[in-house]
C-alpha cells in the first residue's frame, strides 16, 4: 500500500492490540493473523464495530499521510522518507543477487 501507492503513514505503536509491550516485537514480530486494513475515515468506525461483533480484535493504529513512514511511541521513533523506503524496497533483490555473484 505505502510503497506501491507512494503514500506515507503514521503508526502509533501504543495502539496496536498486543500482549507485548516490547517495541522490537511490535515492529518485527510475525504474529499469525495480523494484518493492516486501509479504509476511508468515514468507514473506520463501522469496520471496527463489525470486526468487534465478529470477535476479532482490531484497532485504528494510524493514518495515511504523505512524505514518510512514521512509527511513533510517545515520541517519533522512526521516520523514513517514502523515496528512501521505495528505493530500498525496489533494490533489495538486485543488490542481494549482486552479492552472491
Secondary structure: helix percent: 40-55%
Order of helices and strands: HEHHEEEH
Distance between the termini: 32 Å
Give the uncertain stretches in residue-range form: none
Query: Which structural class do the helices and strands define?
Result: alpha+beta
CATH-derived architecture: Alpha-Beta Complex
Number of domains: 1
| CATH-assigned homologous superfamily | PurM-like C-terminal domain
Largest sheet: 4 strands, mixed
Quick structural summary:
This protein has 101 residues and is an alpha+beta fold. The chain is built from four helices and four strands, in the order αβααβββα.
Topology, element by element:
Elements: H1 2-5, E1 8-12, H2 23-28, H3 41-53, E2 62-65, E3 68-73, E4 75-81, H4 82-100
Parallel strand pairs: 1-3
Antiparallel strand pairs: 1-2, 3-4
Commentary on this structure:
With 101 residues, the chain is α+β, with helices and mostly antiparallel strands. The chain has one domain (2-100): Phosphoribosyl-aminoimidazole Synthetase, Chain A, domain 2 (Alpha-Beta Complex). The protein contains 4 helices and 4 strands; from the N terminus they run H-E-H-H-E-E-E-H. The chain has a 4-stranded mixed β-sheet. Strand 3 and strand 4 (75-81) form a beta hairpin. The two termini are 32 Å apart. The mean pLDDT is 90.
Key features of this structure:
101 residues; alpha+beta; Phosphoribosyl-aminoimidazole Synthetase, Chain A, domain 2; four-stranded mixed β-sheet
